[in-house]
Structure formats: structure tokens, C-alpha cells
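Box 4.2: Ligand-aware structure prediction
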Amino acid sequence: MIGLSTAAEVRAAEDVLLARTREGVLMQRAATGLATVCLRLLGRAHGTRVTALAGAGNNGGDALFAGAHLAARGARVTAVLLDPDRAHPAGLAALRRAGGRVTGPEGPDGLDRADLVLDGVVGTGGRGGLRPPAARLAGRAAAGPGMTVAVDVPSGVDADTGAVAGEAFAALHTVTFGAVKPGLVVGDGRGCAGTVHLVDIGLGPHLAAPRAHQLTDADVAAHLQPPEPGDDKYSRGVVGVVAGSAVYPGAAVLCTGAALRTRPGLVRYAGTAGDGVRAAWPEAIVTDGRPADAGRVQAWVAGPGMGTDDDARGALAEVLATDLPVVVDADALTMAAREPDLVRGRGAPTVLTPHDREFERFGVPVGTDRIGAARRLAADLGAVVLLKGDATVVAGPGGTAFVNATGTSELATAGTGDVLAGILGALLATGTPPAQTAAAAAHLHGRTGQLAAARGPLVASDLVRHLPRAVGLVRGSATGSLRDSGA
Ligand SMILES: NC(=O)C1=CN([C@@H]2O[C@H](COP(=O)(O)OP(=O)(O)OC[C@H]3O[C@@H](n4cnc5c(N)ncnc54)[C@H](OP(=O)(O)O)[C@@H]3O)[C@@H](O)[C@H]2O)[C@@H](O)CC1
Ligand SMILES: [K+]
């Protein structure tokens, strides 16, 4: 698992370490790591042109010291000081010693010919969008030929939330220090950060336990264990699906198929789209009656295409009255937003899977702090909230959160949510902790989308077809990483 640490958590760890190390050591570690990543990205330093935008804080200091490293290896480095009188003195001296040029915000900055642009305007100490001179330079860097690399955080991005209030630096890569900040992987910040590279500056032992994480393939593999010799169709987690309608059987077919393809134990279907499900998935056990007629299950998925009429409301209330985990998706979210007490009083896990418009029906729009919004709704309802987006966020009622790293915009097409609900039901039926399980489902859904999209534009049923390969891939990469680590 990759921990996501807020700016305050990183600063607190830095303070402990700063008190124990010689002055400047941490910044040297950061700048050396930054220069090393830049060298790797450039392929060589000699003869390359580098422009380093440097603000008045320590973020600017990092950029100046890294510029000095690159200049010492033969790069032609120009530092553009946003506030020349307050530039980091030691960083500036190092750059000058290494032969770097220095100019002000209106000077000849070399942005039009740069191979690399370093954004050291502002890091974790930033507030709000970029101010005018920095915003103008960031715009020119984005339009210019140089590879854009943000130092610690793209300037103008809120390190904790990913919110961008105005202009921000658009980076192809971000080299971040000590810990990945949530704002680099969620919301608008994710788009500004590009590929994130983490540089270890020794903060690890001093960092508070993170309250937000990203899962890796190895973490998700633990949710996708192959059957063991003693397993049978009941012991592997039986899923119940309440979805679709006579008019809209597609959602039921996709959701049931996704559950079967994720964990082919047993899937029971209860609803009015039974004929469509029987035709598409003869493996499923179908009843045209109520959920209670379906037989024993270990988790329910309710919502996709089921409608919101009295019968649908009755079926939803029936599954929510059980002591089993329930996924509340699509039409079930509309009904739960009207009657949140259906969810609030539950003892067993509930996972709600809203996109932004569905989320808003619970009373408050998502806003720019997606992790915060998901946490608040989760605490209010005593449920897990999986907030869909480019980077899907999962929050548990106690505040634990996950940000998905595998999302692809190709998944923004009809029916992909029905597939996610089916995957989620299949994983929840095994009884693993619901917030991490929901994050694992989002991860697998994203990996499946990546696989399916490799062949061109995808439709939701492509995802169902690619699920077994995605499960194999996730399991395989976990084995690979264990082998790599010598375990
Ligand atoms: N601590 C350590 O040991 C280590 C810290 N490290 C590094 O330090 C960074 C944090 O440094 P920091 O705390 O000095 O703040 P920082 O991000 O440079 O910003 C302050 C400057 O930004 C300005 N500014 C603010 N908002 C702005 C805006 N919207 N648009 C434009 N400007 C804006 C603000 O201006 P002012 O408000 O003062 O006028 C002030 O000049 C951290 O991200 C990491 O890179 C690493 O070297 C590892 C060791
Ligand atoms: K920056």
C-alpha cells in the first residue's frame, strides 16, 4: 500500500528530522533526488537547456540546488527568481557557483527553447492558485517545448485535496519528497501532477500513520485468491444481485456477468430481468421473485437498472434489512438518498457507489475536496462511500480512505458502473473489510478497463470479457513483485 500524507503530516515529520540533522541536509537529499530523476528523464545533462522557476520558499531552494547539480553536469541552467530579494540564499549561491544564469520574472527565461522546466514556484507552503507572474510563466512553460517537472507539488495545486483555485503548473512529471501527497493523485491535481516519482528523504520513521492509501496490484491480489482444494461453490462467497427490469435487462446481465467473472462461485439473481440473465448467464441461479426467494447469499448488490418504483423500493428495503453486506448502486442510490435511514441504521457493511450527481442527491455537492466529501458522507451514513471519478475515492465511516490509481477515461461509458457493482459484490461476499474491498474492486475495474481499452474504444461488456485476464494479471504481478523482493 502506498501511504498518502498531508502537508501537515509531512511537515511534522520534517520538523523531527530537521532537529536531528545538520542544517540543509534534508534539502540536499530532496534536490539530489530531484536532479537524479531529471537526469533519468533527460537521458543526459550535457548541452541540455534547463529553466528553473524558483519561488521565495524552500520549494524554490530545491529547484535552485537541483539546477546546480544539473549545471555541474554540463546543462545550461537559467533560474527565474519570482521574488529575487527573497530567493533561497544557499541555493542561489550553489547555482551561481555551478555556472547557472539568474534572471527575474520579466527577464530572458529561455522557456521557448528549454528541454526541461523545473517548477519550484511553491510547494507545500502554497495557498490558492498561482499569482500573476507565476501564472504567466506556468502558462508559457505548458505551451513551450520543455518537459515540465514539478518540484514536490505542481504550483497552484492544493497538496492535501488536489483542488486548483485558478491557475496551476501543468507537469508531465512530479518529483515529490518524503511521501506522496493526496493532492497529486486526486481531483484536478492528478491531471497537473502527471507521473509521480517519490524521493525518500528519510521521513518514513517519523511520519504519522497515513489515513489515506493507494492500493497496488499486490494488495489487490490478496482479494483475488484462487480457490483452494477444499473450496466449493458456497465457500467462495455467494453473491445476490437485484438489478435490471423487464424494460432494462442489460444492467442485470452486466452486473451478474461481472460478479461471475470476478469470482466464479455462485451468483443468484432476483428480479424482473430474469429472462435476459438466464439467456446470457446460464451459470446464474435466477428467480423472478423477491430477494428473499433467491436462497442463501453472503452479499447483495442492489440498484443497477432496477427502477425506483414501489416494488423496487420494497426489494431494496428487503436487502438492507438483512445482516449481510450490501452494495447500493445507481437506482438504489436515488432511493437511499430519499430515505437515508434505510442505510443509517444498518449493522452490516453498506457500500454506496455514487458518481458526483448521485452524491449531490444526499444533500451536499462533492466540491473540490473529494476525499473530504466522501469521508463526510461515509461518517454521516455509517457506510463506505465509493465516489466515482477519474481517480475513484473510497472512504469508510471512521475516515480511512483510498484513492484508486488505475482509472482510465475510457471507462466513462454506459454500463461500466454496473460492472463495477458486480465486481464489488463478488469481493464483498468473501467477508473482507468493506472499505479496502471497495478500493480493491475499483482497482480491478480500472485494470480491466486498461486491458480492454488497449484494443480500442471499449463498451461495458468488453470489461466483463476481460475480467478473467485482469484477475490473472493482478495475481501474476503480485507473484512477480514477491519474487523481485526475494520473498
Ligand atoms: N522543510 C524541509 O526541511 C524541507 C522542505 N522541502 C521543500 O520545501 C517546500 C515547502 O517550503 P516552504 O514551507 O518554504 O513553502 P513553499 O512551498 O516554498 O511556499 C512558500 C512560498 O510560496 C509563496 N506562495 C504561496 N502561495 C503562492 C501562490 N499561490 N502563488 C505564488 N507564490 C505563492 C510564498 O510567498 P509569500 O506568501 O511569502 O509572499 C512563499 O514565498 C516543500 O514543498 C519542499 O519542496 C524539501 O526541501 C525537503 C526539506
Ligand atoms: K512546485
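In the box above, the bound molecule is potassium ion. Confidence is low (pLDDT under 50) at residues 480-487.
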